[in-house]
Amino acid sequence: MQLNYTLGHVVNTLTMVETPLKDVEIRVTAEESHAPLEKDTNQGENHKLMDAEEMVAEVKFQPVTAKIRTTIRHLHTTAGFAARWRGLRYGILYTFLVGLISQIVMVAVPIPPIASVLAAIPLIPLHCAWTHATIAMPSKKSMYARMDRSTIRKLAVPAVMRVLMIDLSMLSIVFVAQGWRLVPSEHTHTVYGFLAGNSIFTVIFAVLVWLYVVLPAQTAFTRLEASLLSDDDETIVPFDRTLGGQLEPAVLSTQTGYQTMRAALRSFTGESRSRIAKLAVKQVLIYTVFVLLFVHVLLLELMVLPGNATKVMHDQAKAHFPN
């Protein structure tokens, strides 16, 4: 749970929120460098001297969240060792409540997307407070102080758009994965029949849906939540609350929920997609390594148990499945 929360929520949320600083050029003249240049009588040397009188240095700023290691180090430096569990109590409460409400709603409205929407709307203040507790600089604010009921009005439409985009995307992946069952037998040899029953195509389709639908929706909504952070709080990573000028300041904003969600989606650039996608690949690799390590340790324990438990399990499986 610790690994999943730190990488899956804390690091992921900071990566979604961070606004990378722009590269700058620093021009230094010979006078500013306090290193006077001596002129030569040779015309060619003078020409080289004129070129050298102004030096241009380009300073590149790498995002804090470009690497998992730098993100964790930044968290420890800024907020201490416990920062890797920032907002954990918010997350536990939100996960419990959204599961409870979803199950209750599903009894009356057994349609998953609608149930998800009805469960998400009343919990908008809690989810927004969870995001703020994750991205804000350390403070002594209580959970109650972070929860603002006005966020329901501001984020209701974006929350509905986010839930529908994610849920419908998941249903489309399930439909494609199970599509081979819907293909009539006379069409199984056609291109559609091949694609519908091809697991590789399903994986490719799922990755594309995640990259171009789920990820933008999740990132846009998280950035909208971050833009509502109170003025007396600062973010732990650089963040532009206007989303690059796409979003009006909260005090003067006349934008509707739909317009703010569109603005947040436009702020999701190719650089953001690339950075978050790389983080997701790293997370999958880390999880895979830990699962393989756990399996090997478990097998080793079974082998050293009295009676060679692995051999017993193998014989029992062979008896149940002789072929």
How would you summarize what this structure contains?
The chain has 13 helices and two strands, in the order H-E-H-E-H-H-H-H-H-H-H-H-H-H-H. The chain has 323 residues and is mainly α.
The run of helices and strands is: HEHEHHHHHHHHHHH
Structural class: mainly alpha
| Distance between the amino and carboxyl termini | 38 Å
What profile does the largest beta sheet have? 2 strands, antiparallel
Low-confidence stretches: 35-41, 46-52
Main sheet strand line-up: 1-2
Which range best describes the helical content: under 10%, 10-25%, 25-40%, 40-55%, 55-70% or over 70%? 55-70%
In DSSP terms (H or I, runs of 4 or more residues), the helix count works out at 13
How would the global form be characterised? globular
* Overall radius of gyration: 27 Å
Please tally the β strands and state the result: 2
Q: Mean pLDDT score, rounded?
A: 79
What do these coordinates show?
The protein is mostly helical and 323 residues long. It has helices at residues 2-17, 43-52, 68-79, 88-108, 112-120, 124-135, 143-146, 150-177, 191-196, 199-227, 257-266, 270-304, 309-320; strands at 24-29, 54-59. The protein has 13 helices and two strands; from the N terminus they run αβαβααααααααααα. The longest helix has 35 residues, at 270-304.
